[in-house]
Structure formats: C-alpha cells, structure tokens
Amino acid sequence: MLEVEGNFQLVSLNTLKLECIAECYALVSTTVELQEALSEARLCSANINVLGGGSNLILNRYLPGMTIHVGLKGRELLEESADEVVVRLQAGEEWHQTVLWANGEGYFGLENLALIPGSVGAAPVQNIGAYGVEIAQMIECVHVVDSRNGDIRALTADECCFSYRDSLFKTPEGKRLIITAVDLRLSKHPAVNISYPALREAMPHDSATPSDVLMAVVTIRQSKLPDPGVEANVGSFFKNPIVDREMAEHLKGEYRDMPQYPVDANTVKLSAAWMIDQLGWRGVEEFGVSVSEKHALVVINKRARYASEVIEFTHKITSSVSEKYGVSLDREPELVGSDQRA
Ligand code: EPU
Fold first, then answer.
1. Fold of the CATH domain 4-70
2. What is the pLDDT of residue 328?
C-alpha cells in the first residue's frame, strides 16, 4: 500500500543539505507503486517532482505537488555472449555500488565512472561522465513511466538524445518521463580507457586492468573532490562551457595557460574550474556557502539553510566569470521548487 506523507522535510535526502518542504512525498519501490503515486497526483492535479539520490538538485524552500522518491532496487543479467552482457539496473540502486558490482562480476566499462554520487536513475539524465567516459556509450535502453498517463516505455540510446551533460530527460518533454531502470551493454573483455591525462599519469604500469583503473579513479576523486557525505555538495556546480573556435582562439591569445579541449571542428570546451580559480574564488565563503578548497568547480554548503543563499553566492561567481572572460556559465544541478509557499 502506497504511503503518502504531507509536509515532508527533504533536508536529509539532498546532498547539498538544503531545507525543503515537499507538499506530498511518497517513496516508491515498484513500478506499480510509482503508477499509484502518479494517479493520486493526477486526482488532485498536483505537479510531480522526482527524487533519486538528491545529488544533482538544488531544492528550493518549498516543493509543491507530489514528490516521488524512486526506490526501485535490483540488478539482473538480461543477455550474455562470449564478449558482452546486457544488465538491467533498477533506478533506485546507488551508482557507485553498481560500478563495484559490475567490476566484481567481470562486466567492464564503468570503471572511469566510479564514485560519482547519485542513483542509477539519475545517471542518464545528465549523461554522467568522467575521465573520458560517458554513460551514454554503454546505454542499451532506458525504461520509463510516463507521468501523464502511467504508460511504460523503453527508449533506445538514440531516442535519449545524449550529449555532454545533457539528454532528452532535461527537456520539458523528457521531464515527464520517470526513469525506472537502465539497461547497459558491458564488455567481458578487460579493456580499459586511460585516455584522460590525469588518469594515465596515475596508472602504475601500461598493462592496467579495469580494477586498477577503478582504484585510480577512486583515488583521484578522493584527492581532488570533496566527499558529499562529509561536505555538502553536488559535484560540479557548473558545466564546462562550450564556445565557438574563434572565441576560444581569442581567449587563448589573452590567456596562454587556459586549458581548452576541442569538441569538434567548430567548438571548444573551456574549463570552468580554471576560470573560477583564476578569479580567486577557491576557498571563498559567503552566506554560509563556499567554493571548495579542493576544486573550484564544487560549491560547498557550510551552513546555509536555503537554496536562495546558494543562488546568491553562485550568481556572483558567474557574473565575475562573464565580466572577465565574456563566457557564461550554466549550472549543472537543477533548481526546483519555489522560495515561497504557494
Ligand atoms: N582546475 C583548476 N582549478 C581547480 C580545479 C581544476 O584550475 O580548482 C583546472 C585543472 O588544472 C585542469 C582543468 O581545470 O586543467 C580541468 O580540471 P579537472 O580535470 O578536475 O576536470 P573538470 O573539467 O573540472 C570534469 C567534470 C567532472 C569530472 C572531471 C574528470 C564537468 C562539469 N565536470 O571536471 O565531473 O570528474 O572532469 O573527468 O564536466 C561532476 O560532474 O560532478 C564531476 C565532478
């Protein structure tokens, strides 16, 4: 039987540890419970919010409507050949535990994505990526429930429209789809991807195994990024901006040390961390919010209670980057809810 709670405090369910009151809250552990929660929300014309691991959200003070916490659990082997497997991962599974599980089973490809906070269901939304690998490369299909009518669908990777930190699930149409499970195609061959310079440098020798890579990624992340379990954060707070080549060349002329990564023939990705760092923001604290001492792309909530303080502080950062470099930074986590009770 589905349990719906009113005026539910979400502070312990988001890694930025912001106070937020959900008007209605339901933890669902099956697709049927999810459909039930959706019907209840439809009955009172309430809008729907989806909560996974809460590690890529900035929760405003009030969240009107029905907040559905996706708690579906399980991992299963769907297909196996001599070379590959297809596994089905339920959306409520914790991402890092899943990476460890796959490695333990001898299913390879996820090592570079170790220690990314959040749940399996959140991974396709922002197409999680790290150290030269993106989840999109492994996705076979994404299972969803349409929040408008409760219908079940399975989307192919192409239909998910993945790109850098982006997917269909961030569009207004895609936001209506609630991810219940993700099928991944993984390799049984222990090939590794150590193309990312910092990762290659961390490898003890050339014949690295997937377990070596996994351990190296964990070590690099632990040394470079603050642990959300200890310091409240949502990982990278800003996306790395993608600009056209002309703009990149102009900036390189002015700032010779500026890191730049070509995306294709016409566009270049810039390092948001580098620009924020150059402007002296690392370690700065205002309104109880700070830029991490460890990594300039990570914003730490030290003692702020509400999203408004995080937004005010980070707005100052984006303004200074825009003023100095003429580049606008987009937030990576999504801001949801309202700062006033409806
Ligand atoms: N840098 C600075 N100051 C800092 C941190 C970094 O100048 O405080 C410079 C570095 O020296 C380097 C450049 O910025 O030249 C890039 O740094 P890094 O290798 O740490 O990567 P990033 O572009 O800042 C991205 C992802 C991370 C991911 C790493 C590794 C985005 C928004 N972030 O960070 O993802 O772990 O690459 O692949 O794409 C996340 O999404 O939460 C996340 C942590």
1. 3.30.43
2. 97
**Residue 276 and residue 320: Cα distance in Å, rounded?**
8
Kindly list the domain boundaries of the chain, sorted by start residue.
4-70, 75-224, 242-336
Q: What DSSP element (H or E) covers 253?
A: helix 245-254
**pLDDT tens for each residue of 187-217:** 999 999 999 999 999 987 778 999 999 999 9
Amino acid at 41: A
pTM of the model: 0.95
Ligand 1 mean position to 29 CA, how many Å? 35
Any idea what DSSP says for residue 313? H
Closest atom of ligand 1 to CA, residue 297:
24
Please identify which residue in the block is written with the tokens 């402007």.
Answer: 279
Catalytic residue among 88, 165, 185, 282: 165
pLDDT at 180: 98
Decide if 5 is catalytic: no
Active site residue 231: no
The percent of residues in the chain predicted with pLDDT above 70, rounded, is 100
Ligand 1 atom 15, closest CA: 259
Could you tell me if 334 and 56 are in contact, meaning their C-beta atoms sit under 8 angstroms apart?
A: yes
